[in-house]
Specification:
single chain, mainly alpha
Length: 143
Amino acid sequence: MKDHQHRLFTRREQWIHIIKFTLFSISAGFIQFGLFTLLNEWIELRESIAYLIALVVSVLWNFTLNRQFTFKSAANIPLAMIKVALYYVVFTPLSTWWIYQLVEVHLWNEYLVVGVTMVINFVTEFIYTKYVVYHSQINTAIK
């Protein structure tokens, strides 16, 4: 019976992580999409440059909120940031490349491409953050 209760708690905690990460990611998404729109429409930067700037700002926002409120981690902040940066060392060039290809070469709508890219980023970043960045450091900042 005790093992069953532990599994329910784990499942409940998993859902709490998913919900909180989703809500913070939505807020980061608004920041990213708003800043992308500002840089793309008003300042008229190339889509890939506007995307990169907006991505960095939203990542910093999302990292800060999720470390403190979703995963409640007391992990070494610089080390956790380096781990997140490693994710983006892979994701950013790939996503910048496909945004350029789809928008500039294949003439897809830039907002559709950025929106789909944000969804891909959301799913892969959650998995990476939970199981790589904070795996053994979740709930270590609980008082």
